[in-house]
Specification:
The protein contains 7 helices and no strands. By secondary structure, the protein is mostly helical. α1 crosses α5 and α2 packs across α3.
Length: 138
Amino acid sequence: MATKVEWSPTDYAAQEELLEMIQQSGYSYRVLESKTDIGISFARIRDIALGKRAPVRLSEFIAICQACRQDPVSTLRRIIQRAETIKAPPAPAINADDEQARIEETLRRVQQGDMTIVADHDPLKQQYIDHGDGDDPA
């Protein structure tokens, strides 16, 4: 059974640093997938860049740095400096009744055909539009 991982300030700093690195590289997630030699899927690269699910693993971090032609050691130093200025945001208190009401509202909207709830809010969407899915701008 999977458990929710608590993110530390270092995890947040790594996510921010990697997002900036990926954006500056100009590579799409699919291009990065092909450039990493350890089999990181484009979906996992997207999750790392957007701070979803689990924090980046060391092997993923090194592979992404190398794919983006960045030195992992200097990137790690920047992450450590950035982490010192970040406070982990407090976990939001979740009221079980509110959560159940949100779930029921979402199901009602889906049943009525309201697909706006699944709209794509990817901050790198413009990068895909500009470079396509798989174009290598280098």
